[in-house]
Amino acid sequence: MELLIKESGKLIKQSKFTIAFTGAGISVESGVPPFRGAHGLWNKYDPQVLDLRYFYNNGAECWKYIREIFYEFFADARPNKAHEVLAEMEQNGLLQAVITQNIDNLHFEAGSRVVHEFHGNSKKLKCPKCDHVYEAAEINFEVIPPLCVDDGEILKPDFIFFGEGIPQDAYANSFEAAEKAEVCLIIGSTGEVTPASFVPRAAKQRGATIIEINPEETIFTHQITDIHLKGKASEVLPKISEALI
Length: 245
Ligand code: APR
Hints:
Blueprint: H1 2-14, E1 18-22, H2 41-44, H3 52-57, H4 59-73, H5 81-91, E2 97-100, H6 106-110, E3 115-117, E4 120-126, E5 133-135, E6 156-159, H7 168-180, E7 183-187, H8 198-205, E8 209-213, E9 227-229, H9 233-243
Parallel strand pairs: 1-2, 1-7, 2-3, 7-8, 8-9
Antiparallel strand pairs: 4-5, 4-6
Helix pairs in contact: 1-9, 5-9, 7-8
């Protein structure tokens, strides 16, 4: 592993444009459960609660689970070492963009600035009728479902549900970054969800070197990964950070 870390450090230092594609795995050590795998959320909850059509017809029922998963579980999660290293790399000009599937806001809280949130962000809620945007911090989640003060509609968290389109800006910015990437880090993602998982594939297509950080093998590993650093993000990224000095 040491040799691979060293090689990764060298590639990142030589790269003119490096991106990091992150999934739920980077937030596992912040206490945010992943969706798949042994302790995955989808083993405990029915993904239907995040199906757009089902939500519009059963908002009150869905909100019981949405509150528990995203506003109780996630609420006090803090960035871990992995998020912090990516923010430091950006500050040192060694990382040009983070493209994240995560909705937990932890990259921003760690200090990253160029973060394309492919699936939106749970810290905002929106009225589906009048588009009034609310900060999660201003909502009293004791009373659910939360309602729009203007028209009484059930508010929807501002992250995408199954069957919902990807935010256009995030989509465009992510693929624009992937087209420019010389190195693409893939951190903590099964690669099972599209179109998000097309982002690192687009980077590979344009000739980027793919460095994957994940304790497990994934769909990416044998298809596009050049260097697989088999380990936890919060253990591997500090080692890469040392190799960048
Ligand atoms: N460090 C790095 N990777 C880890 C760690 C860790 N400490 N712990 C787990 N992982 C890896 C797992 O091995 C797995 O490959 O993180 C990945 C988590 O996979 P998923 O839960 O499927 O997360 P992700 O790929 O981000 O899911 C994509 O699915 O349900 C949707 O919208 C949701 O954004 C999510 C999307």
